[in-house]
Amino acid sequence: MKHTRRIFSISGLIPLFYFIMHLTLYFASSFWIVDQSKYFFWITNINKMIFGKLYIEILLIFAPLTIHVLIGLRYMIKKSYFFHLHTHYTLRKANSLQRMTAWVLLLALTLHVVQMRIINHPQKVTIDNKEYFAVKIKPTDRIYKIADKLNVKIIKRAALEEPKALVVHANISSLNIIDPKITYAAAPTSALAFLMMVINNFQSKLMVFLYTIFVLVASFHGFNGLWMFLIYFKVLKTHSMRVNVLKLCVVLMFIFFAFGLTPIWVNFLSSV
Predict the structure, then answer these.
(1) What's the CATH fold of domain 2-120+204-271?
(2) In this predicted model, what pLDDT tens digit does every residue of 54-66 receive, in sequence order?
(3) Buried b (16+ CB within 10 A) or exposed e, 215-224
């Protein structure tokens, strides 16, 4: 049981670092939305250098996250506690809140992975002998303006209703378009494809609402979990150390609230 708790704790810490980088990347996208800053592309390239390979992504993200989820489900189903019930009230409260947010986060994370890795994952397509990364979009005047600035091609099977769209006949099969109503943004780099996906997603009120909840819950769960991790491994040995680090974790939590919510709301308000 003791070893299981250690594995559970460590396996939750590793994805937290990825979460921090991921929200930093999203935050950087808001700089581009506001003033076309280059910071977004710098951070995207750094992120790609670290997590660009599939095996690295599996080893550093999916494997520890899967272990954390499976052990966490066991704790939640059996209604057992990470800390003993005789521990301090603040720890019991932190443990209860961690359990509550875990259910919400599990659902949100599952939907996020399905959306980003399956439904909206960029597809490679060749246009004029050049490789592009294509993502599904809902075409609007704002999308067309941004695509024009970024040298992103808006492609569709038939452009009868959208004269601005580029019709790609030779490579349409590689995009797997069945519904002629589907429109894609084809970007020359994966970073631009990601940016177009972010801009497109947060035009929707529903997506803005869901991702706002996701960011709030994930930030709390991550940094509350970090504080509990430090206590469990006896890094924080005194009450004053626990109080001070708790304050630091709360500050970090609010910083990453801002990192996650800024691109969502900046993009949405820019599209209204």
Answers:
(1) 3 helical TM bundles of succinate and fumarate reductases (1.20.1300)
(2) 777 788 788 999 9
(3) bbbbbbbbbb
